Amino acid sequence: MIGYNALTMATQPPRRVLEPLAPQHYLPPSVRDLRTQAVQRLQAGLFGLSAIVLIVGLANIINDRAKLSEEGTRPVPSASPSASAKANDPLADIGVVPSSMPSEAASPSPSGQPVRPH
Length: 118
Fold this sequence. Notes:
It is a single chain. By secondary structure, the protein is an all-alpha fold. The protein has a domain at 31-70. The protein is built from four helices and no strands. It has helices spanning 4-11, 31-73, 81-88, 90-94. The mean pLDDT is 76.
């Protein structure tokens, strides 16, 4: 069963807390108010444009840096593989380990005798 308060609240219009105010007449905005609104709109527009320019500039910088780092990580094709292999094997350069390059291997002498180092 519905309580008495719930039934009466549903059937009666809501009570107003404040008494109705006296009618207010329309006052057009003054020149000072219009100028203030115009300056505020101009400031908001300029702030928005500068934010967009800043975001586009940052995106361009990020894109350029990404391209530069991408170019730096790509292997550069060398003209001769022997030059890169020679540079990558310092032990073979000083003679501790035999060289893996066939061009640097000891070639047999024309007489068929092995070449002895002096």
